[in-house]
Structure to design on (446 residues):
């Protein structure tokens, strides 16, 4: 609901910006949305689309003030450049440059302000106080995410209760007093954060609370809703077995449509990117010894290895001592390699892998077998990422910076499981759009 309200508020702000710009720059007898309906609607749609690509409907970003302003500015700038380019092509369908300038200035002011004001309003209006059952690791994790919404923990272990502070004491108590505590404090929502050992006593109390109108939510479900990832260490096999989702395993049509899109888009991408790859290959050869392209074995669908192709961005003997994780500011990366990694040019040859069917446009990034075996031993459910084709980009790539440790692999797996659980063609399109924003701001490069 909050995202939808922000979306509507943005449309209103852009509308007001165009209206004010028209009042300043146009004759009083001209009504902008009567004489210039098409240009006005296109301007609104272009700005909203770019805001979506730049993650400006991610409510967490309402708190990142400096970065938010930069993204708003770049979104408006590119939208207005696109509008100006279209108006140049369609000479009879255009605003004046002065109107676009004023509209851009007003939009920057209003859209930046709306995010800060919206953040304050949302925090005041949309309060949904909860109690967390289980004060262990799972309970603490969800409490950290939900912040002040959590009013206390219910746990039979008194040692796990949080005393809180004098300004804001936590409600605490044993499981048997759950309904009493809920009624006294007017709380209608409970999060069940007991991953293991759910006693009959606990389930009886929860059942009574449920039939009295209390909302009971699994910690994993609330975590997934808030963070858009799956808490790997806080789920059990039954959660995967019984949870809704994972439709890709039951509906062949989704896989077939996905493959058709992969073939069409990778073929177009190969044609368009070939000149870029040739120029990059020449520059790589001029900068350092060794081949311009390199190949490497990676693990794909059903643990089958395939050969992945990339433009070389490291020195030729980067792994003379064996396979190692790539890391941030890796000394093995060449000067040109830093640039082509930042803008993802080194990944362009993988469109061939997609065309051949080894990869998909969207999916978990393929890893090497030596690392896969190690990670499968230490990270639960890691094997699930190999039940679909690996991808050129994915939900983990646009939400988590480049990782080079086992801990990073765990965090990325949480995003990958979320993608597999919720996979759809619409979700793939969403990831493609957001990937464009990530590439523009140079996130995740290494």
């Amino acid at each position: 609901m909050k995202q939808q309200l922000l979306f509507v508020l943005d449309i209103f702000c852009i509308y007001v910006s165009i209206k004010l710009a028209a009042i300043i720059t146009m004759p009083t007898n001209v009504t902008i949305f009567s004489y210039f309906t098409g240009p006005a609607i296109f301007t609104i749609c272009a700005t909203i689309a770019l805001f979506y690509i730049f993650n400006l409907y991610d409510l967490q970003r309402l708190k990142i003030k400096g970065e938010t302003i930069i993204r708003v500015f770049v979104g408006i700038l590119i939208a207005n450049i696109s509008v100006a380019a279209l108006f140049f092509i369609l000479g009879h369908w255009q605003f004046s440059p002065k109107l676009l300038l004023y509209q851009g200035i007003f939009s920057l002011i209003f859209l930046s302000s709306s995010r800060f004001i919206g953040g304050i309003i949302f925090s005041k209006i949309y309060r949904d106080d909860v109690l967390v059952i289980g004060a262990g690791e799972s309970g603490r994790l969800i409490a950290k995410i939900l912040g002040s919404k959590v009013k206390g923990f219910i746990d039979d272990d008194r040692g796990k209760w949080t005393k809180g502070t004098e300004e804001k004491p936590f409600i605490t108590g044993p499981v048997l007093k759950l309904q009493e505590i809920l009624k006294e404090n007017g709380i209608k929502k409970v999060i069940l954060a007991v991953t293991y050992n759910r006693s009959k006593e606990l389930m009886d109390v929860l059942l009574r609370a449920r039939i009295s109108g209390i909302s009971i939510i699994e910690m994993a479900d609330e975590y997934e809703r808030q963070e858009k990832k799956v808490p790997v260490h806080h789920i059990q096999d039954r959660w995967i077995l019984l949870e809704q989702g994972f439709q890709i395993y039951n509906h062949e049509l989704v896989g077939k449509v996905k493959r058709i899109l992969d073939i069409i888009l990778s073929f177009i991408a190969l044609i368009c990117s070939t000149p870029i790859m040739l120029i990059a290959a020449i520059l790589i050869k001029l900068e350092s010894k060794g081949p311009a392209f390199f190949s490497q074995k990676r693990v794909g669908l059903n643990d089958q290895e395939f050969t992945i192709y990339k433009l070389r961005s490291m020195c030729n003997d980067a792994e003379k001592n064996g396979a190692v994780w790539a890391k941030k500011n890796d000394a093995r990366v060449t000067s040109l390699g830093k640039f082509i990694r930042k803008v993802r040019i080194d990944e362009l040859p993988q469109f061939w892998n997609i065309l051949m069917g080894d990869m998909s446009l969207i999916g978990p990034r393929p890893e090497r077998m030596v690392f896969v075996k190690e990670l499968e031993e230490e990270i639960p459910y890691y094997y699930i990422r190999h039940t679909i084709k690996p991808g050129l980009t994915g939900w983990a790539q646009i939400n988590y910076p480049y990782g080079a440790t086992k801990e990073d692999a765990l965090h990325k797996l949480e995003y990958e499981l979320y993608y597999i659980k919720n996979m759809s063609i619409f979700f793939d399109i969403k990831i493609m759009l957001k990937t464009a924003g990530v590439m523009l701001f140079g996130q995740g490069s290494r």
User: Anything to note?
Assistant: The radius of gyration is 26 Å. The longest strand covers residues 293-299.
